[in-house]
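=== RUN LOG ===
request id: a7f3
mode: sequence -> structure
chains: 1
length: 611
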Amino acid sequence: MINDLRLHGSIGPVEYFAFVGGAGAHNTYFFYEESPSDIRFFSRGNEFTIMEDGIHYRGTGGSFCEYMFGVEKPFKDLMKRRVANRLIMFGAFFDENESIVFTNNTEGRESYYRLFLTGHAVKNYYFIVSADFSGDYKIRQQYILGAVGKFLKRTNLISEDMDTALLNGFLSELKEKNAQVFIFKLIHRGNQQFYNTYRDFYFRERSPSTNEELYLEEIASTYNIDRYQQERMKIDIMYRHPENKRIVDEYRDILLSGILKDTLQQAEYARLGRLKTLGIRNNIPAVLFETLDELLLRGRKIQEIEEPEYLRETRAILQGLFFKDPSLKRHIITEDIVRLIKAKQAAEAKGDKGFEQILLDTVRACDEIVRETNDFSLFEEFTSIATYFDRYDNVSNLLSQIAFMENVGFTEDSLRSLIGNKKEFDHLDTKLFDELFTKELLSNKYVTTFGKRKITSISKGMKKISAGDASFRDVVTELRKIVEEETLYRHVHTALKERMRSFFPGLDTKKGRERIRQDIAIELSEKGVAGEATGRLFDKVFIDLRKESFYLNHLLPLIIQTRDITFREDFLDNSGLDRFYIETLEKEYFENKKLSPALLEKLYVGGGERI
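=== RESULT ===
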């Protein structure tokens, strides 16, 4: 038994297929070829004619096609992700409220140019339904829409070219035993060749070569495909690449959520930014995001809350954990974790608690998902990232204490922990540890000379251990020597400064200074201070005190008089004296001279400006 019929042919620029199914389809004469360039299909008050330059229709039915990416859609279709196809009923239109209005005027004509420009660029469908019916067309049209509308708008049979299944699905949804259904599939041959060729080129390399572009231009010229139509097809193909589609669909859903609420939360802005970053990383054309912005926002600007770039980037990366598409979570890569660590460092440098607040918000969101789904995978992903923050804190706290403080306990276990953390950072980037800690501390103006020596010693020591040129004990011993020298320097400095303040005799001669050194050594020994005040150490203290005296008695008064702080910065950069100690001396000087504290504050600005 014959269930349905198919007729295939070509007219003008199109290739057409006509499918007929339903009651009596096997013995129905349903078409007439009026001329080599026209074919008319008919059945009980319905008519559909395919001509050289377009089509003509009359009766009960409509048209449908797959939505191309970026085309205007009714708002209701925009809000439903499952809606994949456009459906138009003959004689119906949308009013200003996007409500469907039906009329009895179900006759019309469409040129191929307009059909493939406003519909799908490659293939469009028409249908007519023939049945025993008397009355207003608009009532019949409304009934047909109610029966098959949801099916036609959501089916994927159109994109998969499963035409027989499409006809059977239509008949099944219509539920009319005595009805006949005609479905007409119109394919633009030139557009199809351009679309398929570009798709093959783009899916292979994401960017057609020069020769491939020339070939596409040749197809466009042969079939007279205008530039706008070419771009429509290219954008649609770019969108349909599986990797592009996942990211762009996620972007669209976030925008739609914002439209419904008429606002976007910081987390949603962060996700949009993150998706654009993934777009760049995956070579997704920016036009796909721009098209969605134009289509959905329609010129509206949703203001984003201003915040530092490092916080914006932190939100964007961590919000990637909450994408609907699980595959997008895999895009949090090593480079992103490095950026998060550097963002944490930037926030701490500015005393900005925003970074920690974002982490708390992320933990709270993970907890909510765990309670709702009992799925701990998301929390585990976040924890694996947060582990690096703990490592950063451990290393930063230890090295900062060593750099800024005296007599910090540093054992072989401390060194092992430091090396273990360094290995983990090296897995991310072999230069990261030095950038985050070593270089950062060595460039800090307030780290003392001894502090920089200790950090340098640890850094070199870890490299020697890794190379097998030193043991843990060797490195710890070397550091302890620097610590002892630092303590001894401070005691000698205090003792010698007291003598210089009292105009102690003998400081102008080498023999006199040696006697003073021996005298201080005995004094420190009696106080239980470990270590020997060597001649080298004593000479360094003596020279540093002379520099202090020069600064306080000659240079600082000149700076205050001329209001030129370039002298100060030059002295601090070249004298080798510790900045924090000099600032302490400056405060004492201003207090003793009863000078304005505001003037002192301007001293700390630096940069060669007049105060």
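=== NOTES ===
The first helix runs from residue 75 to 78.
The chain has four domains: 4-189, 242-375, 376-530, 534-611.
=== END ===
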